[in-house]
Amino acid sequence: MSTMALSPFRIDVVSGLRMDLKASTLIKANAVAAVVFLLIGGLFGAGVGLTRWPAVHLLPADYFYMALTGHGVVALIVWVIFFEIAVLYFCGSTLLNSRLATPRWAWAGFWLMIIGALTTIVAVLQGDSSVMMTSYVPMDAAPHFYLGLILFAVGALIGCFVFLGTIVIAKEEGTYRGSLPLVVFGALTAAIIAIFTIAAGAIILIPTFLWSVGLIHSVDPMMYRVIWWALGHSSQQINVATHISIWYLIASLVFGAKPMSEKVSRTAFLLYILFLQLASAHHLLSDPGLSSAWKILNTSYMMYLAVLASLVHGLTVPGSIEVAQRRRGFNRGWFEWLRKAPWGNPVFSGMFLSLVIFGFVGGISGVVMSVEQVNMIIHNTAYVPGHFHGTVAGGTTLAFMALTYYLIPVVFQREVILPRLATLQPYLFGIGTAVFAVAFMGAGTLGVPRRHWDITFAGLPLAHEFPGMAYMLIAIAEFAGVVAVLGGVAFIGIVVGSLLFGRRISEDAKPYPRVADADAGGHKEIGLVGFEAPGTFVLAMVLFASLVLYYFINFKYLATLWPLR
Amino acid sequence: MPTSYTPPAKAIWWKEPIERTEVVWIAIAFLWCLFMFGWMIAWHWIGNQNMANEAYKTSPEAYAAKVEAFTAKYTVRQDKNDPSLPVVHPPAGSDVYLAASRWQWRPLLELDKGKSYRVHISSLDWDHGFSLQPLNLNFQAYPGYEQVVTLTPTSAGTFTLLCNEYCGIGHHTMLGKIYVKE
């Protein structure tokens, strides 16, 4: 067949997957770029954290705001989107057993993303674009700050369409039977949200670029915020859809799990496509000029239907693991299935920590802070970065790290070096991030502002004195942040070291990490009290109780505030 | 064996029954979602902390003029911490004009406990964040839009206004005060 000649495949010894070599090279390129940018973003982040820690106060103000801008752009946009493109190609091509559509376009997209990212990073490092990732007008950055972001977005958009094209080709050429696999359906969800998100980005960043070079007189600050956040927050929904797909994928890879119900999990993804993009409102709840009706409908993702979807995934992913474990024979009691999970395998531990941190830290705080009224006691405080480090660092980044430990043997065909450090790494990064997030949220509830160089207000006549507790929480947060950075450095060291020095996987080698045999044990009667996944249900109820309790605690505090209307 | 990354085992997967764990959880989660949606709406009636969402289009020049006139009319003294700043004591129930600019909140206010004030907030240049401490009450301010919040201070003391929206290199020096008298 001619397509075979165009696109040779190899059968992977570790996974048994049939891999298009051109897709494989693109996955490698995007994943490596992602990891390199994670290093850059992480170093910026370390500078930020060590400056916010009052006892250290490392950088002068101008470098601090520069580093904060760089950290936001690189860690929140460049690292995650490069990795997401790698995941899209892996899902579209490898999991569907198909060649990749238009590899040349995929390379064009890749280089556009590289050039765009570097352009914006150069603009930031030149020092006159310390406008934060959000770059609210009429504060102005250098024109190439915006231009770089636009080029990066165009490249990412091309990547999304290459993925869509690959799905079409796979269907046409019959490389799989029936419906798309759930994981690919989740990736498709991410791609659809990405296209909407990037369109919103273009709608607002192109006029802003034209304004920065003097071709447009002004950009309305309110319009900017409404549309920019359709980029800014919705791009976090790309992350959510992607890392949840990865959770399902890893549950299957490690335990041979299958979805508890295809119908339920797919409907949950569909709710994301329909409603998750209303999130722009989360940043506008304390803004002038928007009605409460608009705020309530949008901030609740249309009656919390997208929150419902996340609550569903939060049950069905560990639920699918529990069912698989019970069928393999770990059917005793409520939690034997969890105790006997491979906690030393970073593919699993990274994924499960990601699930727990995303749910308990990022998820609960996100639902509560996005209540229209509660937002007034949280808006722009340190609570906000606390929250999104729970989602994007503890959730998305950790899930991506976990998947990387699988991609190293399967896509890069290398053994993971330093396996003991690799076993420890997800805990370092995950627990460090979670403690950072919670402590920073605590400081935020005491009023500590985000994006602030000096909360001691040294030498200022009108200085405010924060309670001692706030200082203690910031110190705890930044110490935990250093632990997380060490976890990140360990990750990057392991990845780069494995690619350079890891032993090539031979045809008969047993690669690290071992991926569990997917064969079910044949146990038919599983579970307790009529539930197939009773342990997961208990965990879900713990999450539920925490959410309800925390929700009312915040309202109780809100009610003590000065009356206002 | 089917997994999450292979096509569904049964071609007609949408007719398969849903296991009890999921059914019960979805029911609980859905009811809670509906409750939260209803509660957020209900708080507009049962709660005392709601944004009126009263706002007007303005311009930095027009707003600066209002703040100037307001300050000139009601200034009672210069601030003891920073004598260059006027402290303004407006009558209860009146309109109060606060301007955010790089890098200060103007003017400083003196309010009476238990009285209501219509506090106008806007910016004269870039985006700023109204952050009243230690109360921890936060609003967004940007140029060209004038937000009105009707506030009733119910505790006396000295309150500090911070800026919690990044507004350039002097962001962390941007402060103001609200003194609430018994």
CATH topology of the largest domain in chain B: Immunoglobulin-like
Task: Report the principal-axis shape of chain B.
Answer: elongated
Strand tally of chain B: 12
Summed over residues and divided by their number, the pLDDT of chain B gives a mean of 96
Strand order of the largest sheet of chain A: 1-2
Keywords:
heterodimer; A: 565 residues; mainly alpha; 2 strands; 1% strand; B: 182 residues; alpha+beta; Immunoglobulin-like; 2 domains; 2 helices; 23% helix
Would you mind describing this structure in some detail?
The complex is a heterodimer of chains A (565) and B (182). With 565 residues, chain A is mostly helical. Chain B is an alpha+beta fold and 182 residues long. Chain B folds into 2 domains: 31 residues; 128 residues, Immunoglobulin-like (Sandwich), CATH 2.60.40.420. Helices cover 23% and strands 36% of the residues of chain B. Chain B contains 2 helices and 12 strands; from the N terminus they run αβαβββββββββββ. In chain B, the strands form 2 sheets. A 7-stranded mixed beta sheet of chain B has the order 2-3-6-12-11-8-9. In chain B, strands 1-10-7-4-5 form a 5-stranded mixed beta sheet, covered by helices on one side. Chain B starts with 19 loop residues before the first helix and ends with a strand.
